[in-house]
Write a structure and sequence with these properties.
Length: 301
């Protein structure tokens, strides 16, 4: 129920914010007597595409805490030696990466995992699972944290939102162009006639089809940023420590995946892995083997 509520809240926020922006810009309907008003349509799609992506970004920390059950560590009153070590590692890595120290948290999950999120590099959250904290040694833990700090320092959350926003824009735009063309030429809508149910059904179907195809572009960028974060982790914590941490994560891929679906792109591992296949094009992460191979080619200690 919580996830449904968060989904509805996010979509309501998108509708309100996008509606206000379109009102301020004076953008009216993109349907006219002569057909589609291309400029209005493009602005409409751009506003909804980008607003949808950036509302999710601005809500990302709050939603991550709610969906994963992350409990923040009070830097002034850590409750255990493990929390003290965690805070010290994040503080040191943040200073080395030249970013403001993120909030630090722990979420309940037996499977080793971690994530970073936040709308900018100086207002981020880094969290690790309780299982990771229990089973990884300090070098491996530091490497995982360095990977997440790398995401934050690289601005990956913002750039992924930009990529998603642009993709959303073009998916909406071309779905409506194609929907209008099919409605006119296949279903015989007359010039000046308002779009009927066929147009809206076709547009919804094309939104889904184009969205699935376009998500391959977003997933490619997601995999690319994982390589960059691994490289940052190797530079901050050592190449062998980063490789060791990834191999430890690989050993746990058969454990039940407890990471919420909406958080998988932000986590250090996606869970069960796939080799080369069509489905691999839609994976948020490269395989551990691919990531280790890339790290081994790095020229760093």
């Amino acid at each position: 129920m919580m996830r449904i509520g968060l989904f509805l809240l996010t979509n309501l926020a998108v509708l309100v914010v996008a509606g206000l922006i379109l009102s301020v810009l004076g953008v009216g309907s993109y349907h006219g007597a002569g057909g589609l008003k291309i400029t209005n349509l493009l602005v409409f799609c751009f506003v909804f595409g980008m607003v949808g992506s950036f509302v999710s970004l601005f809500m990302s920390k709050w939603m991550a805490k709610k969906t994963t059950g992350t409990e923040l560590i009070d830097p002034n009153a850590p409750r255990s030696q493990a929390e003290v070590v965690l805070l010290q590692m994040v503080a040191d890595l943040s200073q080395r990466a030249q970013i403001k120290m993120p909030e630090v948290g722990i979420f309940p999950s037996y499977q080793s995992n971690a994530f970073a999120t936040g709308w900018n590099k100086n207002d981020a959250l880094v969290a690790v699972s309780s299982g990771l904290l229990e089973r990884m040694n300090q070098d491996e833990l530091r490497a995982v944290l360095a990977h997440e700090i790398g995401h934050v320092a690289n601005g990956d959350m913002v750039t992924l939102s930009l990529v998603q926003g642009v993709v959303n824009t073009f998916v909406m735009f071309f779905a409506r162009i194609a929907g209008d063309f099919i409605d006119r030429n296949v279903f015989g809508r007359e010039e000046g006639e308002a779009p009927g149910i066929a147009y809206f059904v076709i547009t919804m179907v094309l939104d889904i089809v184009f969205g699935i195809l376009a998500s391959a572009v977003v997933m490619w960028f997601s995999r690319y940023r994982e390589y960059r974060a691994d490289e940052a982790g190797a530079q901050l914590a050592g190449k062998q420590a980063m490789i060791s941490a990834l191999l430890r994560l690989q050993a746990e891929t058969e454990l039940p995946d407890q990471m919420p679906r909406e958080m998988k792109a932000l986590s250090i591992t996606e869970g069960k892995e796939q080799g080369f296949s069509l489905a691999a094009l839609f994976q948020t992460h490269p395989t551990i083997e691919q990531r280790v191979e890339a790290l081994q080619r790095l020229n760093c200690p």
